[in-house]
Specification:
18% helix; 373 residues; 8-stranded antiparallel beta sheet; alpha+beta; 12-stranded antiparallel beta sheet
Length: 373
């Protein structure tokens, strides 16, 4: 068997899939890519035994079909410095010769039959919905950065998808911040929910396209499968009951601050340099026409401050937030202006876009930090 493929297209897909693979796996075969040569295309698969990702690359030419398993590190390192050109793979038994314009190298193939197939949801117990690639990518972009990383609360280490016959809600929280994004651009035939782990969620976010390609999502209580053109991702879901996210979002914050999003992001990034490494605290002193952002690190005797124009009606207020959390939330939003809704310095602040996107609602909650005043 042999096949010829464009080096740049192959290398790009290998890099994308390599994020699935973990080093020093308990199963040596999982250190490899599974290359499945089919008619006119090469299907590349990577797996860590919980998440399995496959993508496709078109072939220039081929003779025969079949499967081989090749060391991921060897294949990527071997193609890394190869310029954009056709690359030919000649397979004879376990020997694989990779040749290109000015050179070649040889590899040894593993046993492709040992590569795990990957579990898929049980058909008689599974729910299935169709969602556009753009909508799914948007939901993950808005939320996945806020997932937790706590072994004691594993259900918080993923994005919760709450599906109804009217909309889909994406939720992520680590206990300090919470993001809720609801969209009416997709829905299910009946109610359902699952928790998508952060690793496959990040893989999907990076591979999905901003277009109307349909993604077929099938899930049961333990597994999920995402099928899109040229993409097949299967993963094990997080099991457990997700906290009641609706109950923690305050609905009676009487004080509203409207501010330019990018101006606030820029000011936070500059002031963040002077925050304490211990808590990354930035103090917001809010008045009728401006927000004064201040930070200091007493251990190093450094401090910084900036002013940002805002619109605010109410009594002056001082409140503290973790700078990096606030920056991440603001960057996940695309609106020109955001509204910061507050009650008092001890209660969570809520940020929402002033101009919500059509069919979507984004709510960002952030717990305050204690100010020493």
């Amino acid at each position: 068997m042999n096949f010829t493929i464009t080096s740049s297209a192959l290398y790009a897909q290998l890099l994308s899939i390599s994020r699935v693979i973990v080093t020093k796996s308990a199963f040596p075969i999982l250190d490899s890519f599974l290359l499945d040569v089919q008619e006119g295309k090469l299907v590349i698969t990577g797996s860590d035994n919980e998440t399995r990702l496959s993508t496709e690359v078109p072939l220039i030419s081929q003779e025969g079909t079949g499967k081989i398993a090749i060391s991921a590190k060897m294949l990527i390192d071997g193609l890394k410095e190869v310029s954009d050109q056709p690359v030919t793979f000649d397979v004879e038994g376990v020997k694989v010769r990779v040749s290109y314009q000015n050179g070649q190298y040889e590899l040894v193939s593993g046993n492709a039959e040992e590569y795990p197939v990957g579990s898929i949801p049980e058909a008689d117990k599974a729910d299935k919905i169709i969602i556009s690639s753009e909508v799914l990518k948007r939901g993950l972009n808005h939320t996945i950065f806020a997932v937790g990383n706590d072994e004691l609360r594993p259900v918080m280490n993923g994005v919760y998808l709450d599906i109804t016959d009217k909309d889909i809600t994406f939720v992520a929280s680590d206990g300090h911040k919470l993001i809720k994004y609801s969209t009416t651009d997709a829905s299910g035939s009946e109610n359902g929910a699952f928790i998508l782990p952060s690793k496959p969620g990040n893989l999907l976010k990076g591979l999905l396209k901003n277009n109307d390609d349909e993604v077929a999502l099938t899930f049961d209580g333990k597994q999920a499968q995402f099928l899109a053109p040229g993409l097949d991702l299967r993963c094990r879901l997080l099991e457990g009951r997700y906290p009641n996210y609706r109950s923690v979002i305050p609905t009676n914050n009487p004080f509203h601050v409207i501010v330019d999003r990018l101006s606030l992001v820029g000011a936070l990034k500059r002031v963040q340099v002077f925050t304490s490494q211990e808590n990354n605290l930035v103090k917001l002193s809010i008045s009728s026409s401006q927000i004064l952002l201040t930070a200091q690190d007493l251990d190093f005797s450094i401090a910084g401050e900036e002013r940002v124009v805002c619109s605010y009606e109410g009594e002056p207020m001082n409140i503290g937030f973790k700078a990096q959390f606030m920056i991440e939330q603001l960057l996940s939003c695309e609106a020109e202006q955001v509204e910061l809704q507050l009650a008092d310095p001890s209660r969570p602040g809520v940020m929402i876009p002033v101009d919500s996107e059509e069919g979507g609602e984004l709510i960002m909650l952030l717990m305050p930090l204690l100010l020493n005043e």
